[in-house]
Amino acid sequence: MDCKRTERNVLLDYIRAAACLLIVFYHYTQRFSELFDQGTDWLFRVPWGYMAVSVFFMLSGYLAVVKDESSLSLRQYTKKKVLRLFPAYWICLPITFLVTSLFVPSRAVSVGAFLFNFTMLESFVGIEPVDGAYWTLANELVFYAFIAITTVILRKRETLPVYGLIWVILLLIYQFVSNDSLVFAAIGKIIAKQYGHMFVLGMSLFYLFDQKNNSMKAMSVINIFLALVYQYIVFESGYFCYMTISGVLIGICIVLNNKSFELPVTVKKILCPLEMVAGISYPLYLIHQNTGYAIMLAEIKWVSHTEWIIIAPIVATCLAAYLIHRYVEIPIAARFRQSE
Q: With the C-alpha atoms ordered 25, 27, 32, 34, is the resulting torsion angle positive or negative?
């Protein structure tokens, strides 16, 4: 992968890569121990790495509105998002299913559940995902539907923070209303009851720093404040601090990019691996968890019990993710741009 790209905010790539690696380290050093009662004596642990999911959601929120897609038809927008999400997913899905079925049966799902997972809708109907990490995809789908309705159908991109405010208010109302009905649970899924505010915060950063409409800037400040309040209510203080700091870092990167800030060439070369990780972050996220667990269990059985066993699954899944990115994601993205 070329590290000399200039058409995107490379600073955000570094944040994306760091978040991806934190999630990988969390699964390999903390979650692995919880699931398999192995590595309990390891000194290297990243128990808070799961919080990095908030970075992905905030970045999704910001990046979804950076490029004006209001001129797209609903069909074009849907096609773009399907080609972004599904090809890599459809490749990682059967790989993970086979690996778990053969080597980690305790993590395997039924054939029926596996087949339904191809829709990416399993979380909405209570079907077990092939990989536990796939729970985030339902939230991404909710956000893309939100953008499709507000930006593509209603053409309200310029006033999107207003709709973001409505979303956060709905989340707050939902949090304080208690109901055990299926309808209430369905509403919770539709509004991404625990994570919708993260998307709103991310897109609000765009209107705060990239737009000149003062009323939308003010609305974005309100959205960010309410999103952080919601974060504090729903999650523990540690997660609140993590998301706040991450949001500030993303905001700094946006401002620096707007001012055409460039890192020294030497620093860019040092950070080049992070840019490469950012490029493969989606397929890496999809394939790293259960496949990595299978490799680690084999290593524990035949090689070692120490923390060093996480190196092999990191290398293996990064290689697999690179191949998927290089031979699936890039060609499909290029073909879509040609068809626009």
A: positive
Q: Could you report the per-residue pLDDT of 75-91, keeping only the tens digit for each?
A: 999 999 999 999 999 99
Phi/psi region, residue 326 (left: phi>0; alpha: psi -120 to 50; beta: rest), is alpha
Planar angle of CA 105, 109, 113, nearest 5 degrees: 165
Look up residue 29 and give its DSSP letter: I
What does the block give as tokens for 226? Answer: 């309410």
> Would you call 129 exposed, middle or buried from its count of C-beta atoms within 10 A (0-12, 13-18, 19+)?
buried
| Residues contacting 272, CB < 8 A, separation 6+ | 3
String of DSSP letters for 261-325: ----HHHHHHHHHHHHHHHTHHHHHHHHHHHHHHHHHHHHHHT--SGGGGHHHHHHHHHHHHHHI
Does residue 6 carry a pLDDT above 70? no
- Chain segment 241-262, per-residue pLDDT in tens: 999 999 999 999 999 999 999 9
Whole-angstrom distance, CA of residue 28 vs CA of residue 294: 11
pLDDT in tens, 22-41: 999 999 999 999 999 998 88
Please give the Cα distance from 253 to 58 (Å, whole number): 13
Residue 336: pLDDT over 80: no
- What interhelical angle do 74-103 and 135-147 show, nearest 10? 180
